[in-house]
Amino acid sequence: MIGWLWRWVRRVVVGLCIVLFTIVGVRAVDAWRGAPLQPWHTFVPQEMSPAEMDKADLAAYRAAEDRLFVDIRRNVTDKLPARDRAGYDRYSAQSPVYPGHFAQDFNRTFEVVPQGEVQGAAVFLHGLTDSPYSLRHLAHLYAEHGFHAIALRLPGHGTVPGGLTAAVFDDWRAATRLAMREARRIAGPDKPVHIVGYSNGGALALMHALDALDAPALVAPSKIVLLSPMVGITRFARFSGIAGWPAIFPAFAKSAWLNILPEFNPFKYNSFPVNAARQSYLLTQALQGNIQRHLRAGRLAGLAPVLTFQSVLDHTVSTRAVIEALHTHLDDNGSELVLFDINRNTQFEQLLNARAETAVARLLPPAPRPFRTAVVTNIDPQSYKTEVRITPAGSAQEEPQALGLVYPRDVYSLSHVALPFPLSDGLYGLEPDPDDDFGVRLGNMAARGEYGALVVNTDMLVRMSSNPFFPYVRERLESILPPRPNTASVQPSLEGAPAR
User: Fold this and answer.
1) Which of 17, 46, 129, 364 is the most buried (most CB within 10 A)?
2) At a CB cut-off of 8 Å and minimum separation 6, what does 173 contact?
3) b/e map of 37-66 (b: 16 or more CB within 10 Å)?
4) CA-to-CA distance for 11 and 5, rounded, in angstroms?
5) Within 10 A of 251 (CB to CB), how many other CB atoms are there?
6) How many Cα atoms occupy the beta-carbon half-sphere of 92 within 13 Å?
7) Alpha carbons 120 and 189: distance in angstroms, whole number
8) Closest residue by Cα to residue 277 from 313, 246, 314, 236
9) CA-CA distance, 111 to 116, in Å (whole number)?
C-alpha cells in the first residue's frame, strides 16, 4: 500500500514538473520571438532607498528625482540612434509626446498651492505604471478648496519602464510615509490631512492608514479617498513571477516582461515588467492581511472614513474584494461606496454577458449595510439619462436622485482606468479640450481596419479611459472638503513642475 502511494505521488510530481517546464519553455520561446528590448527597458535609474526616504523630506526627494531625469536624458534620450529619434516615442526629444515639450512634466512630483490660508493638505498616490498625471484634476480640485495638494511620483514610475524591474512595494510605502510627513508639516497639527489613492495607489493609501493605527509616529489621514483601489487583483498575478524565470538566462531576458510595447504615452508606461505585477500582488496580500489583523484585534474602528469610487466592471482589480474585504468591515463612520453601473440601455442588451448584466446584484450585499452606497445607473432601460440610487448606512430604503448626466451612446461601461479623468482630459478624454494638448489623443481614437496591423492590442483602444460621471465625483469630494474660498485660483509649484 505504501509502495503504491509513493509511486502515485512520484507520478503526480513528475507530471507537474513536466507541465511547469513546458509552460516555462513556451514562455521563454514566446518572449524570445517578441519585440526587442529598448534602452528604456534595460536602463534602471537609481532611486532613493526606503531607509533614505525615511530620513528625507519632500525637497530632498524632489532633488533626487531631478537627478533621475538627468540620468535618463544622458543614458536613454541622448543615446537613441538617429533612426529612432522620430515618431511617437516619449523618450525622443524630437517626438510630439516627449514630456519635456510640455509646460508641465506630469511625470514628476508636483504640488498645487492654494491662494490664501491653507485649510489642510492632501497626498495623491497614482497607480501602477502610471504617473502623477492621473490625479492632476483631483489635486486642483482640492487646491480650489484651500488644500495644499502633493501629487507624488512613486519610485520606479514616471522615468523609464526599466525602473519597475527593480522597484519593490516597500519603496512605495516609504515614499508614502515621506509625503504624509510633508502634508502634516504644511497643514500644521490641527488641520486635516487627506490621502487619495488610485488603483495601486489606493492599496498604498489603505496600507498607510492601517499602519498609522499601530504607529502613532506615522501621520494618520482624517479622510481616505480611493478610486479603483487595488484591494484584490486577478489570480494570474499570484503566479506572474514564474513568467519571469527564463530571464535568468541572457538569451531570454525579454521573459522579464509581460508586455514590450512602443512608449507613445507621455505619462504612463505601455511596457509591463513581470516584477511590477508581482509587487502589486504582494502589496494586496499584505494589505488584506493587515485588514484581517486589525479586525481580529478590534482596531479597524479607528480607521478614517473611506470614500470609494469603483466601476462594477473592472478587469484590473477585483470589485468584489473592494466590497467584501474592505467596505463590509467598516463601521458606520461616514464611509461610502460609489459604484458605476453598466449602461443598461437596451442597445447593449444583446451584447453584454450575464455576469455584466447581474454585476450590481451579485456584488452588493443585501441592505441594510454599515456604509452609504450610491449606484450610478440609467433611469430606465430606454434612456441614456442617469440617476444615482442612494442607500444610507443602516437603511434598506433606496433613494433615487436625478444626476443631469447621460451615458454616452457608444459606451457600455466604465473601466478601471476611467474614473479620475473628465471627458475633457486632453490625453484620455472622450471629448478632449483642444487647449489641453499632450501630443496625442488616446481617449477618443476610433481605429477601424483589419487585424494584425496595429502595434498595440485593439483592447487598448476600446477601453473607456475617461469618466462621463466625473462631475458627480467632484460633487462627492466637495461634500468632504471645506467651502470653496472666494480666491479660488491656484498655482502649481514651480519646483515640482519645471517649465521647459
Assistant:
1) 129
2) 50, 204, 207, 208, 211
3) bbbbbebbbebbebeebeebebeebbebbe
4) 10
5) 10
6) 20
7) 10
8) 236
9) 15
Phi, psi of 376 (to 5 degrees): -90, 120
273-306: pLDDT as tens digits: 999 999 999 999 999 999 999 998 887 888 999 9
Q: How far is CA 335 from CA 191, 226, 307, 393, 395, in A?
A: 20, 11, 6, 9, 14
Helix axes 200-214, 169-187, angle to 10 degrees: 70
Report the distance separating Cα 223 and Cα 206, nearest Å.
11
271, exposed or middle or buried, with CB in 10 Å at 0-12, 13-18, 19+?
buried
Taking the CA of residue 287 as centre, how many other CA atoms within 13 Å lie in the half-sphere pointing to its CB?
Answer: 28
CB 136 within 8 A of CB 490: no
Q: Which long-range contacts (CB under 8 A, 24 or more apart) does 212-215 make?
A: 213/294, 213/299, 213/300, 213/302, 213/303, 214/299
Q: What is the DSSP letter of 317?
A: B
Domain residue spans of the chain:
2-482
Tens of pLDDT, residues 23-74? 444 334 444 445 789 999 999 999 999 999 999 999 999 999 999 999 999 9
Please report which confidence band the pLDDT of residue 382 belongs to, taking 50, 70 and 90 as the band edges: confident
Q: Is the peptide bond before 50 cis (omega within 30 degrees of 0)?
A: no
Residue located via cell numbers 498604498: 204
> 3-class DSSP state for residue 196?
strand
The number of beta carbons lying within 10 Å of the beta carbon of residue 201 is 31
The answer to whether 57 and 182 are in contact (CB under 8 A) is yes
Tell which residue, 125, 93, 304, has the closest CA to residue 201: 125
Cell, residue 307: 470614500
**Tens digit of pLDDT for each residue in 339-363?**
999 999 877 767 788 788 888 989 9
The position carrying cell 509646460 is: 103
In angstroms, what is the C-alpha Rg of the chain?
23
Q: Is the dihedral of CA 169, 175, 176, 177 positive or negative?
A: positive
In 115-172, DSSP assigns E strands to 120-125, 147-152
Phi, psi of 465 (to 5 degrees): -120, 10
> Of 424, 466, 440, which is closest to residue 102 (Cα–Cα)?
440
What are the cell numbers at 165?
Answer: 524591474
Chain centroid, CA 114 distance in Å: 25
d(CA 373, CA 68): 43
Cell 472638503 found at: 481
Residue 411: all three cell numbers together: 459606451
CA 10, 14, 20, 24 torsion: positive or negative? positive
CATH number for the segment(s) 2-482? 3.40.50.1820
